[in-house]
UniProtKB/TrEMBL annotation:
GO MF: hydrolase activity
Lineage: Bacteria, Bacillati, Actinomycetota, Actinomycetes, Micrococcales
Gene3D superfamilies: alpha/beta hydrolase (3.40.50.1820)
Keyword Hydrolase: yes
Keywords: Hydrolase
Natural source organism: Microbacterium panaciterrae
Limits of the AB hydrolase-1 domain: 40-270
Statement: the UniProt record of this protein carries the keyword Hydrolase: yes
InterPro entries reported in the protein's UniProt record: AB_hydrolase, AB_hydrolase_1, AB_hydrolase_fold
Cited Pfam families: Abhydrolase_1 (PF00561)
Protein's UniProt name: Alpha/beta hydrolase
PANTHER family per UniProt: AB HYDROLASE-1 DOMAIN-CONTAINING PROTEIN, HYDROLASE, ALPHA/BETA FOLD FAMILY PROTEIN
Length: 289
């Protein structure tokens, strides 16, 4: 393990110390919080995201009772290496990171691109993953997933013209409720004021986008192989990864649970964090470990 029992317990993501660990020639940047011991919850993040892009209103409630770990994918933020050209290769990198930390079993909380990586990880290493939370995502080969490139660039342009954060357009509806939720979300991401992560480079971002496009155009995975308890969530109007793909995941992953939040988009779990965080925390509880 990379940590010791003598460290103080950190309960706030805004105060989680920045750490690194090297595996396979890659130095991974990560943060951890919550009570250490047992099965950790590893967070897999979204397109273009660094450690600073996790909503503390999601992370902190889960970390109240669990050991939580977030990390930068290879080639992103403060992690070294190059962004892989495929989702499967990103899953291989994630496996390197998890094993370097010394874990043989994890729970997964994932969003968007991170949930695509998590699916590939769980299929390739089924004994590693105990529970899966898949949010704002879809299956390999999902219909219209490859259109994310055009949607992303269009919303970046719209955000630039209005001097806004692109996530306000990409994650939230452009009605009054969505606009307010988007601004609140972006403000929460600024709560950490010291030791912030590096932004993703343009080249790394473009490589991730192409990997998602390739994933959307690939042959579907056999999701019947996912037998872990799985919680799926999204908004009802996801423009990045069509909401219907969450329903597709639900149909194809036996025994999975599905939550679709009304009047919300790709970032539905962030807009409805007060409702979703307790549900996710209960789902990830350790009673059946």
């Amino acid at each position: 393990m990379s940590t010791t029992g003598n460290e103080p317990t950190i309960s706030s993501y805004a105060k989680a110390p920045a750490k690194t660990i090297t595996a396979g020639g890659i130095t991974f940047a990560y943060r951890e919080l919550g009570t250490k011991g047992g099965i950790p919850v590893v967070f897999f993040t979204h397109l273009a995201a660094t450690l600073d892009n996790w909503d503390p209103r999601i992370v902190d409630p889960i970390a109240a009772n669990r050991h939580v770990i977030t990390f930068d994918n290879a080639g992103v933020g403060a992690s070294t290496g190059k962004v892989p050209g495929t989702i499967e290769e990103s899953a291989d990198d994630a496996y390197l990171f998890i094993k370097a930390l010394g874990f043989d079993k994890i729970d997964v909380f994932s969003f968007s691109l991170g949930a695509m990586i998590a699916q590939d990880l769980a299929i390739k290493h089924p004994d590693l993953v105990r529970k899966l939370v898949l949010t704002g995502t879809g299956p390999r080969g999902g219909r219209d997933m490859d259109k994310v490139v055009g949607t992303t660039y269009w919303d970046i342009l719209r955000a630039t013209l209005t001097r806004s954060d692109p996530k306000e357009f990409l994650f939230f509806s452009r009605n009054a409720v969505g606009k307010a939720a988007g601004k609140a979300f972006v403000n929460r991401l600024k709560e950490r004021t010291i030791d912030r992560d590096k932004d993703i480079s343009l080249k790394a971002f473009q490589t991730q986008l192409k990997a998602i496009q390739r994933y959307g155009r690939s042959k579907p995975s056999d999701l019947s192989r996912l037998t872990q308890p799985t919680l799926i969530a999204n908004g009802d109007h996801d423009r990045m990864v069509p909401s219907i793909l969450s329903e597709d995941l639900h149909r194809r992953i036996k025994g999975s649970e599905l939550i679709i939040y009304p009047d919300s988009g790709h970032g539905g779990i962030f807009q409805y964090h007060e409702a979703f965080a307790p549900v996710a925390a209960r789902f990830l509880a350790l009673e059946d470990a």
